[in-house]
Amino acid sequence: MIAELTTNERQTALVILLALAVTGLAMAIAGQGDPFGVHGALVMVVAIAGVFTVISGYYAPEPSDSRLDSYYDTPTKFGIVVAMIWAVIAMFVGDWVAWLLAYPNLTFDAAWSSFGRLRPVHTSGVIFGFGGNALIATSFYVMQRTSRARLPDQLSPWFVLLGYNLFCIVAATGYLMGVTQSKEYAEPEWYADIWLVIVWVAYFVLYLRTLARRKEPHIYVANWYYLAFILVVAMLHIVNNLAVPISWGSAKSYSLFSGVQDAMTEWWYGHNAVAFFLTSGFLGMLYYYMPKRAGRPIYSYRMSIISFWGITFFYMWAGSHHLHYTALPQWVQSLGMTFSVMLLIPSWVSAGNALMTLNGAWNKVRDDAVLRFMMVAAVFYGLTTFEGSFMAIRPVNSLSHYTDWTVGHVHAGALGWVAMITFGAIYASVPWLWKRETMYSPRLVEVHFWLALAGTVIYVFAMWNSGIIQGLMWRTYNESGTLAYSFVDSLVAMHPYYIARAVGGVFFLLGTAIGLYNIWMTIRTAPRAASELAADRPVLAGAPALQAGE
Amino acid sequence: MALDHDILVWFSKSFGLFYLLALSLIVLVYAYWPANRKPFERAANAILHDDDDKPYRG
Amino acid sequence: MFGFHYRLERKAIGLVLAIIGVASIGGIVEIAPLFTIHQTVEDAPDMRVYTPLELAGRNIYIREGCYACHSQMIRTLRDEVERYGPYSLAVESKYDHPMLWGSKRTGPDLARIGNKYSDEWQVEHLNNPRDVVPESVMPAYTWLLRTKLRTDDLSNHLRAQRTVGVPYTDDMIANAAADAYGQAAPDSPQADGVVTRYGKATTVRPFDGRPDELTEMDALVAYLQILGRLTDAAHKPIASAEK
């Protein structure tokens, strides 16, 4: 990795790492006796380890100019593996907390292992650790290919990826120590948030610099989606996390907003995290990998553009549907509901566009589990967005809100759409990246597919049932006009569904673990010979066998 | 006088609709603009034909 | 060459600006008017701020992730009002930085849990929920009783709260640690100061049953017992905040 950096970049890396180490040291000193200090020490150790890594490779020969003849894919390779590792960890924690809801004593008598602290490790681990790394890694891959330009330098992709993972680690370890802002899906405290802004700016600049080197005047639509993901997440992150720390040596801060303003800001953030982190970025993934894998162009390029602006526009208004019947003024609730329903149009245009792309290639979908991952993802995307618009309707929401239905909805999206499209994209790119014929075991991809699908279906059905039963029990009256069930009654009724949900989770986790194993074994098998590679190419008949790899 | 709450609310309630209409129009015009047809088709197909998998060096 | 690049850059920047423009307006339109909301929503002149002990308890509530399973927002629905009490008003969480309305009820709503159960019940329940509610799936928070409450930085907490808009006085900030101790130790000399600064209605009790030691349990129970009781605006015959 260090050998791929130029001397100049090695020096810059050293400067950055030393600055980071000094910052960590300052944090550790200022935050003695506080989790802030622990994180300072952590940052310092990581930075010093980085310094040693750079020094150990410092005198390696500079990479030759021939590197510019190929795309720079090492960061993508790293990001894919890290994403899968995060997936296994975070899904394990998720399933653990799922079992805790059925058997609350399956835990240790320690603060870090209680449900409330583990849950954000699961949510952040899956969304940011798994999803975020997958997005960054694939975006590097896609922006280079669609621009036909190599990344402008070797250092900044590493800064983005490693810096981002530092953020994820600080966030996850923070939760275990009780460091949280309590804002859902924005739990990391102020210093982690500031660090993420720095990383994110570097990511944005890197993206623009690569685009500026592109060969085609037109920017391929997948990049639009990735760009919207980068830009809007930055906007949401900065506004929602505005806070005043209690001191420069403490992890604790207080949100700038309170009460109803804070609620609206949080769910403006929360819902658009779904939109721009979990939808826009992954649509970018879909619009590159699905046509590529199916060997067919997008069914309608125009539709992909129209739905892009639809999604970018509509989602921003929809957040207030998380606050129906609350103290939020009703006109904001109505706006949120209206736009949430309209959101169905661009969402279904996207899902339809994806499925129509496969139309005529169904035999490939039948035979190729990788393409099937992508197809199922598009189907779940369509289902989930329909369900989402439906649940945003006020009377429906009065039943579904606060119940497991919401949890089921989120997982239909997260497991069925986000994870499936990611697995599809990863399985497609691993053989391309490591120059292999196929995955180590196509059979295991097949096994993963069915485990993931079964897990998702079990999970979602369990939560639909429990959520609707719960919602109905809370509002059921008996003949004398009083509430028929106590809260505990509804809780007891959930027990079988909580077990079913946790079993569904086991299926999904198992699939992911198999996926990681399969990817690892693919990396370890021997690469194809250069001549084979060339022979495999469809159009270049008669051309000299050039080595395409690094 | 500072921004009055009622005026702000009125603006918020009505503005979205006009904004929505204008934006949809712009997007539709852009997507169906005849001159854009070719670059779109080119872009949709270009990703399928980069078999050498190498950056362009001009 | 330069011209070509310039054209490419301009296109990319144009796309960036368009995305920012299209994406930001929805949020601005919905959020900005909320900052003028005080012009129409009734005020609650009787509302008091959290005492340092209650604020510390609130921070424990946040730290342990209680908000993941408990809401603090009673909706304007008949069954919710009958189950949990009068629906929540915007003004009731005006000092909540951040709000803890929540999004999920794995456990019941807590917006009006204050004074519904005795301190003893709360302590026993937090220590092991299944001792008092056999069917409960809530975690046991055994470490709260054995962990001393950190009070040395409470003045910093109050000062930061004031920065974001909560009306703490200099007096309150200076005496934050003493007030936290006093509120859970009724016979101590510090107890009087709490009532002087936060009002006669302030509960001064040994919340965890042990006045000699200030634990995290004291703080959390003090917080739970004040929930829904900072103001009685919601209990007035015509609650006019729902708009």
What would your notes on this structure say?
The complex is a heterotrimer of chains A (about 550), B (about 60) and C (about 240). Chain A has about 550 residues and is mostly helical. Chain A folds into two domains: about 1-65; about 80-530, Up-down Bundle (Cytochrome C Oxidase, Chain A), CATH 1.20.210. Chain A contains 18 helices and two strands. Chain B is mainly α. Chain B has one domain (about 10-50). The longest helix of chain B is centred in the N-terminal third of the chain and has 28 residues, at about 5-30. The N and C termini of chain B lie far apart (about 60 Å). Chain C has about 240 residues and is an all-alpha fold. Chain C has helices spanning about 1-30, 50-65, 80-85, 120-125, 145, 155-165, 170-175, 175-185, 190-200, 215-225. In chain C, helix 2 crosses helix 8 (about 175-185), helix 2 packs across helix 10 and helix 8 (about 175-185) packs across helix 9. The interface between A and C is large, with 99 and 90 residues.
Give the topology, please.
The complex is a heterotrimer of chains A (550), B (58) and C (243).
Chain A (H helix, E strand, L loop, with lengths): L6 H24 L4 H22 L17 H29 L12 H33 L7 H23 L12 H23 L8 H20 L2 E3 L7 E3 L3 H36 L6 H18 L11 H13 L1 H15 L3 H6 L1 H23 L2 H7 L3 H30 L8 H34 L11 H38 L5 H6 L15
Antiparallel strand pairs in A: 1-2
Chain B lengths: L4 H28 L4 H10 L12
Chain C lengths: L1 H30 L20 H12 L14 H7 L34 H9 L15 H4 L7 H10 L6 H5 L1 H8 L7 H8 L17 H11 L17
Helix pairs in contact in C: 2-8, 2-10, 4-10, 8-9
Short account of what is shown:
The complex is a heterotrimer of chains A (550), B (58) and C (243). Chain A is mostly helical and 550 residues long.
Structural class of chain C: mainly alpha
Percent of sequence in beta strands of chain C:
under 5%
**Amount of beta strand of chain A:** under 5%
Separation of the first and last Cα atoms of chain C? 60 Å
The global form of chain A is globular
Q: How would you describe this structure in keywords?
A:
heterotrimer, A: about 550 residues, Cytochrome C Oxidase, Chain A, C: about 240 residues, mainly alpha, Cytochrome Bc1 Complex, Chain D, domain 2, 2 domains, globular, disordered C terminus
